[in-house]
Amino acid sequence: MADDHRIDPDDAGQRLDRYLRKLMPRATLAHVYKLIRKGRVRINGARGKPDTRLGAGDLVTMQVGDELLAVPTPGPVAPAGDVAASLPVLHEDDDLLVVDKPAGLAVHAGSGVGSDHLVARILAYLGEGQARAFRPAPAHRLDRGTSGAVLVGKSGRGLRGLTRLLREGHVEKHYDAVVCGRLPASRGRFTEPIDGKPADTSWECVARSGDHALLRVRIATGRRHQVRIHFAAAGASVLGDRRYHGRPAARLMLHAAELALPHPVSSLALAIVAPVPDDFLAELSRHGMRLP
């Protein structure tokens, strides 16, 4: 029996093979290629290729066993309590959601994370959409201990636009960070590669107390642990960063405070500000500093 799937705008733009993998999570990639090769998957009545890009309104007709046609549903369950309270929203429109992640909350599911993570809260907040394969998702991640603004693609075109903006360096990211150690100046820039890839971190000191310093940090690239690695290499690890030998603190003293970017669909300029959380301010005060 043929099974028809009309492509929703949020599913548009995907390669045929990737769309099929999402519709058939039990099928191997080799099996998906075999179905396409044998003509058991058609687009608007014609044979497709694995790399064919699907358009909104296209009709994908599949002749496969029912045991493979299990549309994947989001694994995360809604966290207990008020979803709105657990997911502070900084900006929302039809294509883009920007949320304020608290320190200590992982972005994605994983070992030792459990059912409460940022993706689970996003899906609980937004509910089910009409798309068969697309799910709203963060376009980037923050470390578990870092708080602050996270960009989420609410629609397929929104997520694709965010991915492009991040890849092309059109998203400005500013952090508040507290480090412990002697920095060589009141401002500076680190350009040492991370994992063999270019990495660019600039910073300015806005307050000092002993050998602790509150910094405003801007990153022009988005390498994993970039801020933490660059400052640890300079002998001034982020406070609370156990992995990179930072001094103990109540939390990792790193907060994604501001994002500036063109809207991923309309290109209108956006400036997003994530308020500095109370636990960050409390730790800052404990070390004799405050925000300017």
Write out the CATH superfamily name of the largest domain: Pseudouridine synthase
Give the helix/strand class.
Answer: alpha+beta
> Which CATH architecture of the largest domain would you pick?
2-Layer Sandwich
Shape: elongated
* Tally of separate domains: 2
In CATH, the topology of the largest domain is named Pseudouridine synthase
Largest sheet: 11 strands, mixed
How much strand content do the residues show? 25-35%
What do these coordinates show?
20% of the residues lie in helices and 27% in strands. By secondary structure, it is α+β, with helices and mostly antiparallel strands. It folds into two domains: 3-68, RNA-binding S4 domain (Structural Genomics Hypothetical 15.5 Kd Protein In mrcA-pckA Intergenic Region, Chain A, Roll), CATH 3.10.290; 88-104 and 130-286, Pseudouridine synthase (2-Layer Sandwich), CATH 3.30.2350. The strands form two sheets. Strands 5, 6, 7, 8, 9, 10, 11, 12, 13, 14 and 15 form an eleven-stranded mixed beta sheet that branches. Strands 1-4-2-3 form a four-stranded antiparallel beta sheet. The model is unreliable at 71-78 (pLDDT under 50).
Layout of helices and strands, plus pairs?
Blueprint: E1 3-6, H1 16-23, H2 29-37, E2 41-43, E3 46-47, E4 59-62, H3 83-86, E5 89-92, E6 96-101, H4 118-126, E7 137-138, E8 147-153, H5 156-167, E9 172-180, E10 187-190, E11 201-209, E12 212-219, H6 226-233, E13 237-238, E14 254-262, E15 269-273, H7 278-286
Parallel strand pairs: 8-14
Antiparallel strand pairs: 1-4, 2-3, 2-4, 5-6, 6-8, 7-8, 9-12, 9-13, 9-14, 10-11, 11-12, 14-15
